[in-house]
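Sequence in, structure out. Go.
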Amino acid sequence: MSNPELQEKAFIANAQRNKWVLRKDIKRFNNKYIKGVKVTESGILAAAHLAGPGSVKKFLRSYGEQGFADANGATIKYYMKKFSGYDTSLIKPLKKVKVKYESA
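Output:
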């Protein structure tokens, strides 16, 4: 928590892993609508950051019937809508990701 650079690396690594796990679902559902929300790659990745890739798969494959909400009430649908349309092309899907920690 006290190392912003390491946090950023961990966030990117998590997004890369989630993009790999969800690659087939991204291809299948991108630009479709579920429960009135346009599904985009950035929305899927944001939702995976919130709820985990498994919960996002369940949401997509059930066409929104199976959902998730965190302790604050944020849902997969909310994240998909809020974070729709961002450029995630720099996030490369990777099966195995490691974060290097370099101490001072």
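Check: The chain has a mean pLDDT of 94. The radius of gyration is 14 Å.
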